[in-house]
Design a protein that fits this description.
Elements lengths: L3 E5 H11 L4 E4 L6 H7 L6 E4 L3 H14 L3 E6 H17 L5 E7 L12 H8 L3 E2 L4 H18 L3 E6 H4 L2 E5 L15 H4 L3 H22 L6 E3 L2 E9 L2 H8 L3 E6 L1 E3 L3 H9 L3 E5 L5 H8 L18 H7 L24 H12 L2 E3 L16 E3 L5 H13 L7 E6 H17 L4 E7 L28 H7 L4 E6 L3 H12 L4 E7 L12 E5 L18 E4 L2 E4 L9 H5 L5 E5 L3
Parallel strand pairs: 2-3, 2-4, 4-5, 5-7, 6-7, 10-11, 10-13, 14-15, 14-16, 16-17, 17-19, 18-19
Antiparallel strand pairs: 1-8, 6-12, 9-11, 20-23, 21-22
Length: 579
Amino acid sequence: MKKTKIMLGNEAIARGAYEAGVKVSAAYPGTPSTEVSENLALYDDVYAEWSPNEKVATEVAIGASMAGVRALACMKHVGLNVASDPLYTCAYIGVNGGLVINVADDPGIYSSQNEQDTRMIARAAMIPVLEPSDSQEAKDYTKLAFELSEEYDTPIILRTTTRLAHSQGVVTLCEREDIQDKPYVKNIAKNVMMPANAKNRHLYVEERLNRMAKDASSFSINKAEYNDTSVGIITSGIPYQYVKEVMPDASVLKLGCVHPLPKDLICEFASKIDKLYIIEELEPVIEEQVRSWGIECQGKELFTVQGEYSANMIRRNLLNEPVEYTACDAPMRPPILCPGCPHRSTFSVLKKLKIHACGDIGCYTLGAVAPLNVIDTTVCMGSSISTLHGMEKAKGSEYIKDWVATIGDSTFLHTGVNSLMNMVYNKSHGTVLILDNSTTGMTGHQEHAATGLTLKNEETYAINLYALCKAMGIDNVYEVDVFDTAELENVIKREVARDAVSVVICKSPCALLKSFVPKGKCYTIPDKCVKCGQCLVPGCPAIIKKDDAIVIDDTMCNGCGLCMQRCKFDAIGFTPRQS
């Protein structure tokens, strides 16, 4: 009897990679893809790493593939933008060992800065895409992706979405395949993409895609389920589950390979259907191609290009059935920095000094919202430093005397290093705050190159951020404990006034790290409190105003002491932690 297990979609992808004989995996954490690598790192037979960014991760996987082993790179959809440079060229080169890029899209923008569709990038890069619809398929399609990669000499994108990545299903487990390493053969024409070689490989890529498109009509993962032929639906991924729930009697063409599309199979299915619909989240990737073949269908005129789909959306938009929603009495819970978060201390100082911040991607982006309101811009990973540089070059050094760039330690190593290098090289001015909380906090506390631990939890050299900045030729580099607010304020005031590049490393560990030990608990002293409200300004959720009194919830307080430092009347006390 085969063993089964309930698995997240991401966990199932990791299992599929393990069973497929993958030997090397590289990734940068990014919700909703992170758990793939975290689970894959648990298998001793797989080398798994956190790379500094997605470009590096993809290049690591390409190198492993060239050496002759099966390799995986994992990232979220915006991470694919960072990886696009090697991705597009790797399509020309092809593979030796199987190469799969797992990319997780985020319909609904639950944890991202945009809502792009990976299928669009795959079409431009001429890379095939498989898309599973449940956890079992997530495992099976991962294994199939490696087989197709080697059969067609191409990297394969395994596309998932937030709903699949973070939903659970029953998965049947298999043993790990014993995949023999493929011998490395020197082949300049295939592996060195200078212009003369690339021109020939482009012709190969076009032929490869055409061959795969023809073969795709017989792929088992593309299947027609004929029932009532008055209505037919072409769909893929998670929307397939919604279609089967709402319209179990409709005929459905379920596509597991969404690029290249199986034209012959689609034309055959459409010829047997009276009314054809295409249901796909985000962009009309399938719909536009089907229409271009002269097939009548309906799709985005009924369904949005924005956000996640649902069973109720299909009931409402396709069947015109009224959908009743039950009002929820749960209180609104806007995102907020955690109690004891070091970023709150930094932002409260910036707020006091009335300094604007070019922001970056991380949990510290919450510095843009009330009550802190100090982050003015956020574009993408590493952009804060470049944005500040652009402002200085546009308006001059005086203009940015009340501006800083804020960037996390992990994000700084991801792409911020290059931006800081650019400031130095191009004789810029400006102050960069590296918010060093000793982790990649936004995606669930993963290690990075400056923490001293690998993805496999092995000790390693920790990149010294101070020494790295000094090595760039920056004279003004300072490390400050963020909860020493007086010192932090003095350093920031001094550095924003300086006509040079400055870096302030704002240090204090994330309060949610397992290694974090609170110093104690804060408490209010009602007899001394004048109800000025200064302790409430940073917005710590552990301290509230209740019945005209200031109250600190000791179950939430992490004893950071920020509220104590803001109180001029000694109305907040502190109880040290008992060891």
